[in-house]
Design goal:
The complex is a heterodimer. By secondary structure, chain A is an all-alpha fold. Chain A has two domains: about 160 residues, no CATH class; about 110 residues. Chain A contains eleven helices and no strands. Chain A starts with 5 loop residues before the first helix and ends with a helix. Helices cover about 25% and strands about 15% of the residues of chain B. In chain B, strands 2-1-12-11-10-7-8 form a seven-stranded mixed sheet, with no helix packed on it. A five-stranded mixed sheet of chain B has the order 4-3-5-6-9, with no helix packed on it. Chain B has a two-stranded antiparallel sheet with strand order 13-18. In chain B, strand 11 and strand 12 form a beta hairpin. Classes of the chains: A mainly alpha, B alpha+beta.
């Protein structure tokens, strides 16, 4: 294709998704249609070709479905690798992502029919189970891509992570000066709230957004508990400190939600990618074992 | 007291000194603004320590709980002299020589500044799962390698190393190898092979190769051939010779068995055997029920000669059997039974006794099926032996037996004492038949008397309404008993008498090329398939044709009929044809 080829240029323009078009709807659901055709083909040969006994992975129908499934796995893995190459233009990325999603879904049906619904404690079912987990995690990934970006945008309120951290740092500085006249106990808890601000952390914290030992929350609780004991002269720094702590708590909640959304958008990849590799190993063992013995 | 306080601040290479004087009885140090020397850091207590005047100079006392170290030692109070170092939280205080007019001098430096808040936050914050130590790449390659080793490399090593031994070798200590081997098992084992299924090498004797016939023959050496050895079947014969066990038998396909039941395997050859192998003498089959020819029953052509013939069922006129016996199923299945004989209404099972396996029936014999109603007694009155009977199955012995009975009676004085029998012999006759004609008077001498008595009795024994001829054919061309001729030649008995009764040949199997399991059809009645109540003669063939079978049996994939394939009725390995493979298998 050359740049001067007007028809090709038009075609590329037609298939490129708009900024607001989901990759799922890429090119009028082109890949969904082809994936549906593939699934229907698999169902037809499963139903039409009846090997002796019950359907199984052997016979020409079984081998056909198995071969399609194996190539789909390798192809989708390659797609998965390539679609993360963000150097490519957006159109090709969306095309690859769309194909990855729909043909990944089709793989589930093809492979399930290939099994003939025979399962056992063996490497063949292991490969199938790994494939199901990979596909399920991918489905969850699609769900996260559909759900969390919007929530993240709403939550961030036009701020970036660095901006939120900068705001928190600014509040820490204000807290440090505001709390100076207060009693030692209060200064101690506020000091911990400043010095030991938990942002992110363990995978569990990031995924749940729960920070049970939050020093800011503890400082607020301390100040709430001792609000009635504040001498008149310290009312103003006390009020200011309390105000800044509330501001910090709000910002912390926001950045922690942001981290949680990010983690939820990432965690499925920690199943999807490693289990894909395990699946390729199991698939290799599955194919070799069938023909080795 | 008055103390000179120098606050030291470093900004890169620049060092700034801010000097001031504090004057109070006790110079307080702490975060609080009421301290003479305020330490503006929230890590420091409001009032942390105080410089005090002592006799020997200035000293320091700790206030509160914040730790204080003087020259590296944690203390509550300590005298101070120039050069001493005090650590108070993030501050380092050095005691200097007191200038003129002062009781002492200190230099304060914030040695542990808090630092920029953003930098600190950014440093401490762990955002992103990759910063938790999780590493997709490591997990991926770990999973790949573990599965490749455990599920692929180890089984291959075990198999190549001979650790998956055949079942008959001592396999103790090979549990791991068994488990590894089973991890490759692609499906359920057949029930018969399960006891050695974990030892893959029993069947799989080489890598990337089919299971060899020798592996099967190790146990199944005596399996029968499909055709007679020596028969010329041309290309079909070559195809049959090239057939391997695994072409029809497979494994890992479920507990029910390893036999491939699809009709296609058989039809590959049987579809056009008439053209490709006419010597086989087998009609072409294209399937079942459509494409399967009508059954051919094997019938007796001539019982006397022992010849058989195969006749197609369902023809008009129907095929005829010639078993050499006169038998009416209809007469025996009379509604109401036989009250005169005190016998109930008969059912099929009264005569047709199932084999122990239930597949077929025991042969019909006079002893087992007929005798209880058709006794061969002939003179219960005159003879002193009430159970005296003529033998069955020994037609030439019948004449001698009767003659001997009367001769025995004569020897016991029966003829002398009576001169003549007191009463005519009691005849055997079927229920409801009229009495026989009155016998002629007895002769005067004993032999003549015995011969006369035997003649009278044998006429009854051979009689077609009461005797042998009731069920059997005689030796004449039309099957009649020529009684006068027989008796004239046979009495008194002589050596090597001529046979009297035509031979009988009752078949136990009419469709020997197929097998029919009556036991699996026990839910049906006999008359569902056999029209026995209408059969007046044993010549009538009661074997049902294919039309009867297809009422219930359909194709191998039938949904609303019993699925039926070739081996439902036919056997591939026919032991009567010798061994399938001449290789003699041995249990290794």
């Amino acid at each position: 294709m050359t740049i001067s080829d007007p028809s090709a240029a038009t075609s590329t323009a037609d298939t490129r998704p708009t900024r607001h078009e989901s990759f799922l709807a890429y090119d009028h659901f082109r890949h969904l249609k082809w994936a549906t055709v593939l699934v229907l083909f698999a169902i037809v040969i499963y139903v039409a070709v009846r090997p002796y006994g019950t359907p199984y992975g052997g016979g020409w129908a079984g081998y056909t479905l198995g071969t399609i499934g194996a190539f789909l796995i390798l192809w989708l893995t390659w797609f998965g690798y390539r679609k993360r190459n963000y150097a490519e233009n957006h159109g090709r990325l969306a095309a690859r992502l769309s194909a990855h999603v729909y043909f990944g879904g089709a793989l589930f049906f093809v492979a399930t029919l290939h099994t003939g619904f025979h399962f056992g404690w063996n490497i063949h079912t292991l490969a199938y189970a790994l494939m199901c987990i990979v596909i399920a995690s991918g489905v969850y990934g699609v769900f996260t891509y559909a759900r969390y970006p919007r929530l993240m945008t709403d939550n961030r309120d036009s701020m970036t992570t660095v901006q939120m951290l900068g705001r928190i740092a600014g509040i820490d500085d204000e807290l440090r000066s505001a709390t100076m006249p207060l009693d030692d106990a209060t200064v101690a808890v506020v000091g911990r709230a400043i010095s030991a601000t938990a942002v992110g952390g363990s995978a569990w914290r990031q995924l749940t957004g729960r920070y049970p030992g939050c020093t800011t929350a503890m400082a607020i609780a301390h100040m709430e508990a001792h609000a009635s004991e504040v001498p008149l002269a310290l009312q103003e720094p006390w009020r200011l400190t309390r105000l800044k702590l509330s501001e910090k708590e709000t910002l912390l909640a926001r950045i922690r939600s942001d981290i949680r959304y990010k983690a939820l958008m990432e965690i499925w990849l920690y199943l999807h990618v490693p289990l894909t590799f395990a699946l390729i190993a199991a698939l290799t063992a599955h194919i070799i074992s069938i023909f080795y013995l | 007291m008055e103390v000179e306080v120098t606050v030291l601040t470093r900004r890169g290479a620049a060092v700034m000194h801010r000097v001031q004087r504090a004057s109070a009885p006790r110079i307080g140090l702490g975060r609080g603004t009421d301290n003479e020397v305020p330490l503006a850091d929230i890590r420091v207590g409001l009032h942390i320590a105080a410089l005090v005047q002592r006799d020997t100079g200035i000293g320091i006392e700790r206030i509160g709980t914040s730790p204080m170290m003087v020259n590296g030692i944690s203390v509550e109070a300590a005298p101070l002299k120039p050069g001493d170092e005090i650590l108070l939280g993030p501050y380092r205080i050095e005691i200097l020589a007191a200038p003129e007019g002062c009781d002492g001098a200190i230099q304060i430096e914030l040695t542990q500044p808090i630092g920029p808040a953003l930098e600190r936050l950014t440093t401490t914050a762990r955002i992103g799962l990759e910063r938790t130590g999780a590493n997709k790449r490591v997990y991926a390659w770990t999973g790949f390698v573990v599965i490749a080793v455990v599920c692929l490399a180890v089984p291959i090593i075990f198999f190549s190393g001979g650790m998956m031994r055949p079942w008959h070798k001592d396999a103790t200590g090979h549990r791991v190898a068994k488990l590894i081997g089973l991890s490759w098992n692609p499906g359920q084992f057949s029930n018969a092979h399960r006891f050695f299924a974990a030892e893959c090498a029993t069947c799989h004797q080489g890598a990337f190769s089919r299971v060899a016939d020798t592996a099967c023959l190790a146990c199944h050496a005596k399996v029968g051939n499909h055709v007679e050895h020596g028969i010329k079947l041309d290309a079909v014969g070559d195809k049959l010779d090239a057939l391997a066990c695994v072409d029809c038998h497979t494994e890992h396909r479920g507990i029910e068995g390893s036999l491939i039941r699809t009709a296609g395997l058989c039809l590959d050859c049987h579809r056009n055997l008439g053209e490709t192998a006419p010597a086989a003498g087998v009609r072409d089959v294209a399937g079942f029920p459509n494409g399967h020819p009508q059954f051919r029953a094997t019938l007796v052509a001539d019982a006397a000669k022992g010849t058989i013939t195969r006749a197609e069922l369902g023809t008009t006129p129907p095929p005829v059997d010639h078993p050499g016996i006169k038998f009416s199923h209809a007469a025996h299945l009379l509604p109401g039974g036989f009250p005169a004989l005190h016998y109930k209404e008969m059912v099929c099972a009264d005569c047709h006794i199932a084999e122990p396996g239930g597949q077929s029936f025991l042969p019909i014999t006079y002893k087992n099926q007929c005798e209880r109603c058709h006794e061969l007694t002939f003179d219960k009155v005159a003879l002193p032996w009430p159970d005296a009977k003529v033998p069955h199955g020994d037609d030439t012995g019948v004449i001698a037996a009767v003659w001997n009975y009367y001769a025995g009676l004569a020897l016991q004085g029966g003829a002398t004492a009576l001169g003549a029998p007191a009463s005519p012999p009691v005849e055997r006759r079927a229920a409801g038949l009229p009495p026989p004609p009155t016998p002629s008077p007895p002769p005067a001498d004993t032999q003549a008397w015995v011969t006369a008595k035997s003649t009278v009795a044998l006429r009854l024994v051979f009689d077609e309404r009461r005797g042998c001829a009731y069920c059997h054919y005689g030796m004449s061309a039309d099957g009649a008993f020529e009684t006068d001729k027989i008796l004239a030649a046979a009495l008194p008995p002589k050596a090597n008498p001529a046979p009297v009764v035509a031979p009988v040949s009752l078949r136990t199997r009419f469709l020997p090329q197929a097998r029919f399991d009556h036991a699996s059809h026990r839910g049906m009645t006999c008359e569902d398939c056999h029209a026995s109540r209408q059969a007046l003669s044993s010549d009538e063939v009661l074997i049902p044709g294919i039309d009867t079978c297809v009422k219930c049996h359909g194709t191998e994939n039938a949904a609303l009929r019993a699925q039926s394939t070739c081996i439902t009725c036919h056997v591939f390995h026919r032991s009567e044809f010798g061994l399938m493979r001449m290789t003699t298998g041995t249990m290794q």
